[in-house]
Amino acid sequence: MSRQTPTFQETADAYLNNTQLRENLGHATHTIRDKRADIVGEMPDWEHLREAGNKLKKRVMRHLDSYLLQLEASVQEAGGHVHWARDAEEANDIITGLVKQQQVDEVVKVKSITTDEIKLNEALKKEGIQALETDLAELIVQLAEDEPSHILVPAIHKNRKEIRDLFREKLNNKELTDRPEDLAEAARLYLRKKFLSAKVGISGANFGVADTGTIAVVESEGNGRMCTTLPETLITVMGIEKLIPTWQDFEVFMQLLPRSSTAERMNPYNSFWTGVTPGDGPQEFHLVLLDNGRTNVLADEVGRQTLNCIRCSACLNVCPVYERTGGHAYHSVYPGPIGAILTPQLKGIEDDGAASLPYASSLCGACYEVCPVKIDIPKVLVHLRGKIVDEKKRNGSLKAKLDPEHVGLKLMAQAFKNSKRYERAQKLAQTGQNIFVKDGKISSLPGYLSGWSAMRDLKPIPKETFREWWRNRNE
Amino acid sequence: MRISLFITCFNDTLFPETGKAMVRLLERLGHTVDFPFEQTCCGQMHYNTGYQEEAIPLVRKFIDVFGDAEYIVAPSASCVAMIHEFYPKVAERSGDAQLAKEVEEIIPKVYELSQFLVDELGIEDVGAYYPHKVTFHPTCHSIRMLHVGDAPLKLLRKVKGLELEELPGALECCGFGGTFAVKNADTSMAMLSDKMKNIESTGAKACTSIDNSCLMHIGGGLSRKGSDTKAVHLAEILASTEENQ
Ligand code: SF4
User: Do B187 and A454 touch (CB under 8 A)?
Assistant: First the structure.
């Protein structure tokens, strides 16, 4: 296997030792987790809504080709332009080209993970264009030259004091306190000037409606509203899976999304636009439809449901693994449970880092329980593990095939096929363990199993197995 | 009633006491227990780690061994969940339509112990006696995959002398997760330390559950900490009586 990104295991350990990070994250995820549970609990028909969301998204995936063409036609009819991008490079070329046409060197951006996925800001920078993040949390991440660690709250790994220090330095505001109001005000003053002068705005999309051509962005701060209304030109980057069939389907998604993401009944700002409207808002609108691996995901019958995701981040907030390691351990703009299934499918499992992600889960199933569109994340994780092992058997290096887990599981599979062989293996394990047993327990194991014994004792294997007891009893 | 015991390889080898307790309990309740010797492993560890091809012969074996059984009961929620949730997938992968049919037929006959007692037999009071403070950890697979609900709690509430302490953060994963506990050992331990904190906060003498795999992890952590709290399988509590205390 080629190696591009570090594995989850390698990185997680460093984050686990960062107690400040674990405290910030533990606190933040538990708060939002409880709030979500309360606000979802208000809805007697929540399970029906989830079912409806799932069915709608499934339908979109089944007929994605025709819905996309329908969307293209409706956007064009409403005066917008549609561009198709096969991958990140194509998308970035299209967008930089469009920005350059406007002869500007600065654009304002609404928080958009899709643009993070294609590393748009870097591509723009190469062309001398500065992209200014206007979402408070994204701005924090950008000023800190950091990476987002959560889908919805990109700076969830930072606390107030850390943010105050950052703003004191970068926004040149030496007297700033760490009160949330003051921090927001400092950002507001800084951003307001930029909004008023920006000629080009760039956004992502929460939804694109096939039958009307409407694009929707929901948010909490109002910066998105400004980015999508003040500049003369608006460029929206949308993954091809963000489609919904009709305007009416908002009935389902506008209930599912805010309750699952920010634990609100409704988002404070819901912006919808359809092409261009003369005399009102941007007079030039471009929609860039991005594939970047999504059609490969679509081709996998089990993996396909990953595309249902509406990026609410509920799965991150309930995930016991994410809660402890934080988002950076996933080495992707999509962290947490959704990232663990999406990243390997988008990037391909030939990448060591991506292939480690489906294993970054205890399969506890908390994510599936909250997912508003019912993506069976544990099932997809196990499915991807299967693909990774199949690939290893086919093309794995000798080293991969000598890996103790691989060898061990192969041997055990042989033993389990036949109860006589299995009994012999039991006996072997009973004798084999003797060198490790001390004071009636095993406190240290070598190699692959050392991870177990570093912090957990193991009870030695008893002298008599259950089947031996049964045999003796019935003799 | 004739009950075929699926002990699971894990309990057979590492926790025979749980199997013995199950036999005592079911016989005490007047049932005939039978243990088909040919049984080995359900294939969960292989399947969940990605060795899905290797699970096919194990599913075949399970059908061969238990095909004629009336009731198949196991002391492990995650192994039963494997059968209910993933055996159809394994059968599908094998491309063997007969196997798929047999899997479909056997699934409704496979029960986890507490579910079998409460939902199938309709008993909550099994006549057990266990004079200790106990807390219960509902394992993820038992709750979210097998949906056993509060069957184990119903049984525990009826045990004489037992003082049941509610476990804070009960529904949070203990961090076991099969090979996850070894592959991502540090993350697994970070999860376990919070679970242990919650267990110890109850002051319970025993933390019980319906899966020895999670209990081995929890018990191993508690033992390393030098804690007084022990991990005990539910079957062992239910098998205890005033006579055999
Ligand atoms: S996978 Fe489900 S829960 Fe997670 S972000 Fe996507 S929609 Fe939300």
Answer: no
